[in-house]
Amino acid sequence: MKRLRHNIFTEEAGWQYALKLLGIRQRSEQEINTALQKKGYSQELTIAIINRLKAANLLDDRQFAYNWTNYRLSNRLVGRNRLKNELRQHGISASLAEEVVSTVLTDAIELDNAWILAQRYHQRPNESTFRYCQRLARFLQQRGFSNSIISQVLKKVAANNLIDSDDLI
């Protein structure tokens, strides 16, 4: 015999569910909102739970953004654009994402990260320098680096005799 499961959508049950989610990993306000609504909680109840989490200092988008940015930079070398897009996907506002990324990721650090990636990215045998530069630029762009950073990296690659500087794009 199948047992029916009854969900009681009370504030306390929602609070416990939100705490469970936050116990797994830190989340943004939008992530909690989406999870509670997906679970079946009303908008009013969801707002009440989120306000309660904020009052208890368990939900802070600014702190989440700083932690997420530091985590991503420690585990993967990515550029400013990629970090901002990831924060936006987590529900962080564009202005807050810009502020956090600008604070954590300076131009010098971003250039160093791109340079480290470029050193790992080798030219294939019988590959033209032009083709290699295109591949490297595309790779760095996919990682979220800006065109100005990519240009500086290509010049640095040429200066270190990794490619012929006359063939730069």
How would you describe this structure in keywords?
169 residues; mainly alpha; 3 domains
Would you kindly provide a written description of the structure presented here, covering whatever features stand out?
- The structure is a single chain.
- With 169 residues, the chain is an all-alpha fold.
- The chain folds into three domains: 11-55; 61-104; 107-167, no CATH class.
- 68% of the residues lie in helices and 0% in strands.
- It has helices at 11-24, 29-39, 43-55, 61-75, 80-89, 94-104, 107-120, 129-142, 147-159.
- Helix 1 (11-24) packs across helix 3, helix 7 (107-120) crosses helix 9 (147-159) and helix 8 crosses helix 9 (147-159).
- The model has no long low-confidence stretch (mean pLDDT 89).
Order of helices and strands: HHHHHHHHH
Please count the beta strands (DSSP E, at least 2 residues each): 0
Low-confidence stretches: none
Q: How far is it from the N-terminal to the C-terminal residue, by CA?
A: 70 Å
Estimate nothing, just give the exact number of structural domains. 3
- Strand content bin: under 5%
From the alpha-carbon coordinates, what is the Rg to the nearest angstrom?
A: 22 Å
Number of helices: 9
Name the overall outline. elongated
SSE class: mainly alpha
Largest sheet: number of strands, sense, barrel closure: none
Average pLDDT works out at 89
- Helix residue percentage: 55-70%
What's the assembly state of these chains?
Answer: single chain
